[in-house]
């Protein structure tokens, strides 16, 4: 695979990772969220291809942008997961306390 192919594959992978993260934390119904994500990924891919064809961006630009976006998405997902985990632990502790109170 050429370097250009590897870069494009990296961009697609980052977009897919973002879509998965979005699905995990989306407030909408699953089917609605999947539809939105699919449209966003398709729109982004179309814009990237148009920009490359017009020579407005290079693959190196895309590589840098994809790396930055992937890092942002990873950090955002980590923060959301940590918040979810903290709330889950609080809920579990609260439930445990209530059960213990009921049992005496």
From TrEMBL:
Transmembrane segments: 6-26
Phylogenetic placement of the source organism: Bacteria, Pseudomonadati, Bacteroidota, Cytophagia, Cytophagales
Keywords: Membrane, Transmembrane, Transmembrane helix
Annotated protein name in UniProt: Gas vesicle protein
Domain of life: Bacteria
